[in-house]
Please model this.
Amino acid sequence: MSQSNSEMPFWMDALLLPFLNIMTAFVVMVGIFLVIGVDPVEAGEILLFGAFGYGEGIGYTLYYMTNFVFTGLAVAVAFHAGLFNIGGEGQAYLGGLGAGLVCLLLAEWLPGLLVIPIAILGAALFGAAWAYIPAYLQAYRGSHIVITTIMFNFLAASLMVYLMVNVLNDPSKMSPESVTFPDSVWLPQMHELFAMFGVEIESSPLNVSIFLALLASVFVWIFIWYTRWGYQLRTTGSNASAAIYAGIKPPRVIVLSMCISGALAGMVGVNEILGVNHRLMLDFHVGYGFAGIAVALMGRNHPIGIILAALLFGVLSQGGQELAFEMSNITRDIVVVMQGLVILFCGALEFMYRPWLMKLYLASKGENNAQEVTS
Amino acid sequence: MHSDIAIELTDVSKRFGAVRANDKVNLCVESGTIHGIVGENGAGKSTLMSILYGFYQYDTGHIEVFGKAQYFNNSREALAAGVGMVHQHFMLVEPFTVLENVMLGNEGGKLLKEGRIAAETELKRLANEYGLAVDLHARVSSLSVGLQQRVEILKALYRGAKILILDEPTGVLTPQETAELFRILESLKAQGVTILLITHKLQEIMAITDNVSVMRAGTMVAHRKTSETSKEDIAELMVGRKVLLQVDKIDANVGEALIKVDNLTIKDAQGVERVKQVSFEVKAGEVVGIAGVSGNGQSELLEALSGITKVNSGSMIINGHEVSRKKPASPERMRIRGLAHVPEDRHHMGMVTSFSASESSILGYHNDKEYNGRFIMSRSKVRDYCRKLMDAFDVRPRDPDLKSANFSGGNQQKLILAREMERNPDILLVGQPTRGVDIGAIEFIHRRIIEMRDAGKAILLVSVELEEIISVSDRVLVMCDGVITGEVPAAEATERELGLLMTSSDAQKEVVA
Amino acid sequence: MTDWFEVILLTFDATLRVSAPLVLAALAGLFSERAGVVDIGLEGKMLAGAFMAAAVASLTGSAWLGLVAAIGVSILLALLHGFACITHRGNQVVSGVAINILASGLTMVIGLYLFNQGGQTPSLINDARFLSIELPGVELLSGIPYLGTIYKELISGHNALVYVAFAMVPVTYWVIYKTRFGLRLRAVGENPNAVDTAGISVSRQRYLAVICCGVLCGVAGAYISTAHNAQFVRDMTAGQGFIALAALIFGKWRPVSVMMACLLFGFLDALAVRLQGVVLPVIGEVPVQLIEALPYILTVILLAGFIGRAVAPKASGIPYVKER
Model:
């Protein structure tokens, strides 16, 4: 009753509210710029130019976006099942490990065309495995998934440090990273791909992973809304007793959805390890998992919304880098601040304007209709 | 004897949105008496009491407490005026001790130490005076329900309540605990405390109250002196003489038993027996109604029959398949065995309110080949299927894409009935089919149920609406406190007779005797 | 013999120093979560506190002013958390994440603006720090074998905030269990309905709780930058807020147990440092990361119900809505 009580039209809920939230975040950001003595107009121009103004910038924007799409989808899938997966960080990290291990083990023996799919599978599998344990503990032992996934983020970090320092490191290098993979397993970068068709674009880290991200979006869209498994997942997330009534087993749904979620987060490893770094290293994943929460929330847990929100985060990341590069009194930490503000206003304070909008809406609809809504 | 008035309500109204929960209610409670308030579920008793102790605020009307006009903005103000409440769901902090619970909000100083000794002394005095002995240092979570209730009473008294409201106090108590509670209430009354007892159990009204007021559909319909009335009289006032909806039906053509329940016992998550060694049969071609005040084991029975909850002991044979503790069932398997289930609470179980109508129309049948390919569920086929259901049961608006929540109660219910009936099951379990449904839809739903019966299906109908039970069923079973207290052929059943059976389990007879 | 004694003593000494901020942060979380507000933003509040303490201490030369500033900024963030979770019933986890990320970014941005040293603060001179305090009687007891050394090395010779941290344990215990404030705070985390029907404002009680949380996180932050270290550097809390969260769960939301958990986790940390690169007989080289990960592993095992049961306050994480 309380839900149907506060019904707003789709455009208000899905478009106006996020827009107001974003604007609030921007207003606060402008305030911060003014405080630290940066001209906000100039900063905005640099940011937008950095993100869209030239080929390389666009490439970077889309490359960052790719990661945000993966983690945003990951959070969304879990969310549809009523779960909060804040373990995207760890799952992304492990995904990279999975992809990297496959390359280190197989790249010398098998052709790249065979290794790449296995490596992608490895990333998915490792990411899923890292989500499976918290999911199992939630479904069958009742431990709270938020806490366990946080713990698993740190466990992933410790595991990776151990592996990179002691096991997988390239002895010829000082830094904790593996040998570089043979270029047969490097994912084609976009400028190489375009070059094959005789089109020249500026080089950037953007690689074919972005197609994987779009594919994953389509997959999630179909899975959630066009399969019986997605149906079971959404039923469990929306009304667990109705799910049980319908013969759905919530624990199984919890495990399944978290595994898919983990696999999606693991895809960050594909973009970073197979697509860009071409070797295993530390901290390639930092921040994407947490930002995925905001991406999913802003995108209303729908792939199209997630792609748009991921694009925004991509713009902030690349534009912010450019800002740090152009202005001596700004570092790339400005990106982190912007992300934090977006998560705060679009996530935690998501409903700040809701009561106010609701009042406006009801007032415009008139008293009679308002009563119809409540009854 | 007691001439002064503790509470006087004049034309008190309260609405939630479009719902009139209380409509011009008048009530006069004499000081130092036990005053009963009876009514069916949803008659507005709890809302009225919530207004009295300041949880809700009334829209219009006038309230006087001990001769002084009052408008309580919160429960603190009500307490200050001497009105205390013992809630149906106890407002206790379980990990706290009894003493801590009583002190909460009335600590008597910044440090607990300061108020503790005074509180202990006062509580001991209260405990002695009213016979409310309870270990002040025991954790509430370790106390029995009866003792927890005693803590609630102590809490109210400690805060200076001169008027005590008890909302369905015996619903969760054992017969012994009920007897004990009544003893306490008597001694409170002897000390001059005024008691308002909200209940739907007529036995209790007769056993303990001085006066009784009857509520129906948000209004106060009668006030009586208990000594000058009878259970039968009150039962009639409670249900009201509604115009009987006529359901045309031919005589039942009964076949073999499709549901056989034998000595079935079901416990809830806390291990309390909710259904106690129940046995009955439902045959093909008949409607068996289960009457009873809600919360007397009907829900648990339905959930066990439909495979949702496990059976603790005894067995049931559903369409030839045995189900017992050793042979558990699942909702999925039950559906395959030809059992369909219209759950009692459509929002809690029957549908997903955030889903579109078409999605809600396949709940439980979402794996059906009709609209599922190997991987893809065809939304257009689901939509077509939903439209078919909507046509068959005249669901309006006929829009499969409309959100389930945005249909009226009647149309939601029709959609669920369509979903469960159109697959031609052999057995149909129906819980509260017309709760919150408009008159037109009620008639339609009843007709459909009868049609199914005439098609040779076995139907078990659970309802708190006696009229519905009597007009739709062929046989009526009455449940009270997890036990079947009687069986009456529907043709011979009267509401008065059923009303008595509904409130007269052996357990309660003991108390009254 | 004395060599081993020395090693053990030094490890315990390090344990105390490492545990102190954990104790403060975990007790901070205890105030918040016992009142029903989940706080995974301990890390962010500590980080902001650490920055403010170092920045103000560096600008004014006073460690105490730094401490006050740290508490101030941490309370502000706590109020932001309250505004999102209590007033607007936002998601408590998301709010915590936002605060962590904001703190991580803002400390660097403002640090750069103020000091122009890549986000770090300048190294603090000794006056602007909390220095070791020698407790009275060290000389007197120094003659006694072992006991004298223990007193000198382990008990004495810490900075003021270490003593504050451990003093906060009985203080918290007292506040939570012995005062009206504590009674209401616990009640609001278990059954806000009971509190509301007793005529006490649930929101007010929860706001007070998150403010307490802010104060303690601020002290923890100040400890990290102006007592344990002598400047602020990027992300210098390094997950201690989450270790504190783990300790809070591991200690089952009870002050003394929480302190024990912090000591255990602090000990593991001190041990990890000590065992770095050391080859032990039989076992060989111990992977330091494994020891560092133990707090998280232990907490997961506890949560899974394999060693006892950690039952969170019943109403934690749930925004309070008056029922209809």
Summary: The CA atoms of residues 391 and 398 of chain B lie 8 Å apart. Residues 5-239 of chain B form a domain with the Rossmann fold fold (CATH 3.40.50.300). Residues 507-513 of chain B have pLDDT under 50 and may be disordered.
